[in-house]
Design brief:
By secondary structure, the chain is an alpha/beta fold. 45% of the residues lie in helices and 17% in strands.
């Protein structure tokens, strides 16, 4: 089944607006800091037109994510660990992009959005970089990275170049 159809099927299953052109971001291996930063910008993310699938976490954190899912059903959905392996995600948000994690991106067409690690901001003019960087768990820095990522996603030529760069990293 083509990625587009798989993605639209999951969007429907998760209660998201169904549209393959909407970037779908995976958030796994997260901590409370990332949740707090993301929570602060979710209304802006909703206006931006990005969807988040968040891996289940600790019981206390899970309850908080479920409350956010109820508040932002078009933007955020909590998923199981098994669903994180689906090849439907366009991007992955994380604290630190390690060399080991970067290797997993070589087999998936997923682009990293990370605070630090082996990541360089994508520059569509120079066609360099392997993802999008945000700084110090700052909500506005994360929002800027999400805006840049979603805009790049909407330009197929740039997106393909970025995915190629990630696979070569």
């Amino acid at each position: 089944m083509a990625k587009k159809i798989q993605k639209e099927t999951k969007q429907m299953q998760w209660g998201f607006p169904v549209d393959a052109s909407i970037p779908l971001v995976l958030l796994q291996d997260h901590d409370d800091d990332i949740r707090a930063v993301l929570e602060e910008i979710l209304s802006a993310v909703q206006a931006l037109g990005v969807q988040f699938a968040v891996e289940e976490s600790s019981e206390q954190s899970l309850q908080h994510w479920l409350e956010l899912q109820a508040k932002y059903p078009d933007v955020l959905h909590v998923i199981s660990k098994e669903e994180c392996q689906d090849p439907i995600f366009d991007m992955e948000l994380m604290d630190d992009l390690t060399a080991e994690k970067l290797k997993t991106f070589q087999t998936t067409p997923r682009v990293p959005i990370a605070e630090s690690g082996t990541i360089k901001n994508f520059d569509p003019i120079a066609e360099t970089g392997n993802g999008f960087v945000f700084s110090s768990k700052n909500p506005w820095s994360l929002l800027v990275a999400l805006v840049r990522a979603s805009e790049t996603y909407r330009f197929p030529y740039d997106w393909k170049n970025l995915v190629k760069a990630v696979k070569k990293s």
